[in-house]
Automatic annotation (TrEMBL):
All copies of domain ABC transporter, residue ranges: 6-230
The protein, known as: ABC transporter ATP-binding protein
InterPro entries (UniProt xref): AAA+_ATPase (IPR003593), ABC_transporter-like_ATP-bd (IPR003439), P-loop_NTPase (IPR027417)
Family: Belongs to the ABC transporter superfamily.
Taxonomic source organism: Amycolatopsis rhabdoformis
Keyword flag Translocase: no
Gene Ontology MF annotations: ATP binding
Pfam families: ABC_tran (PF00005)
Length: 288
């Protein structure tokens, strides 16, 4: 088997007495686009900061492309983009790109200039005068010009309006198609990841509750919907149940049970998968 892009073994990070991430074991192949999802405080940023070497693990091991991550050392081949799109406000875009060129050993200035020009972002404008969407695009250009093997994005579109969100995600996918890097991006908005990601990691309370190839996960689950009044007639143990008044949806992993009258089996969306697996860990939401 080829060397995984990300190999984490019982990786954990504790803040004082509380765990931000615990027992995280992952094997993710190179070239994947990984969607990292979970509610507030689930541990997404903690995992991303461990990947980039910004945080030191409390337990476990982490290798990227077969090389151990050394916290505190800038990881060669890893580019990080956070939701603030940190840039030097007073610099002109051209100066920003020059500064990034000087700071990065691995840098393709043509990539940065061409992207910024193609997007119609004026090179002489100050970063502080750019729109949120333009700023995000400049930050993405800086990340891509580093020619990363692994591109890590922490909620990159959180602060953007819907159009700018779509544009940034489009740019990301175009870049991914040209340059076969591995991408990990976190988001609260599962629907936004649906068309982008081919690998899913769901975190809750610092633990991985679901991970795997998106197509395989979708194929391995089925969603049954029917009248809440006859939910007791459905045999088997669902991952979780979502009761909405007179209609209940049950997510099953594997072969579904025979359907009582009025029930039907349907395909599963990424959102169904995520929400049902998150609900499975919360007893109050499981009860039908
Ligand atoms: N520096 C810190 N000191 C103490 N606790 C922290 C620190 N950073 C994170 N935590 C805690 O660790 C847990 C995981 O936080 P983390 O920021 O990784 O979650 P997240 O999934 O990124 O959340 P959000 O979606 O709100 O950004 C939370 O309970 C958080 O309060």
């Amino acid at each position: 088997m080829s060397t995984p892009a990300i190999a984490a073994r019982t990786l954990g990070r504790r803040y004082g007495r509380a765990w931000g991430l615990r027992d995280c074991t992952l094997d993710i192949g190179a070239g994947r686009v990984v969607g990292l999802v979970g509610p507030n405080g689930a541990g997404k940023s903690t995992l991303l900061n461990l990947l980039t070497g910004l945080l030191r693990p409390t337990t476990g091991e982490l290798e990227l492309f077969g090389r151990p991550v050394r916290p505190g050392e800038p990881a060669d081949g890893v580019a990080y983009l956070d939701q603030r799109h940190a840039l030097y406000e007073s610099f002109r875009v051209r100066e920003m790109l020059e500064a990034a060129r000087r700071l990065n050993r691995r840098w393709d200035h043509r990539v940065a200039l061409d992207r910024v020009r193609e997007l119609g972002i004026p090179l002489e404008r100050r970063v502080g005068e750019l729109s949120g969407g333009q700023r995000a695009q400049v930050a993405l250009s800086v990340a891509l010009a580093r020619r990363p093997q692994l591109l890590v994005l922490d909620e990159p579109v959180a602060s953007l309006d819907p159009l700018a969100r779509r544009d940034l995600m489009g740019s990301l996918m175009a870049a991914k198609a040209e340059d076969d890097c591995t991408v990990v991006l976190s988001s609260h908005v599962v629907s936004e990841l649906e068309r982008l990601c081919d690998y899913l990691v769901v975190l809750d309370h610092g633990r991985v509750v679901l991970s795997g190839d998106v197509d395989e996960l979708m194929a391995a689950h089925v969603l049954l919907t029917g009248p809440s009044s006859t939910v007791d007639e459905v045999r088997g143990v669902p991952v979780s149940a979502d009761r909405r008044g007179t209609v209940t949806a049950l997510l099953f992993r594997g072969t579904p049970p025979p359907l009582p009258p009025g029930w039907r089996a349907g395909p599963v969306s990424l959102e169904d998968l995520v929400l049902h697996h998150l609900a499975a860990g919360r007893p109050t939401e499981v009860a039908a």
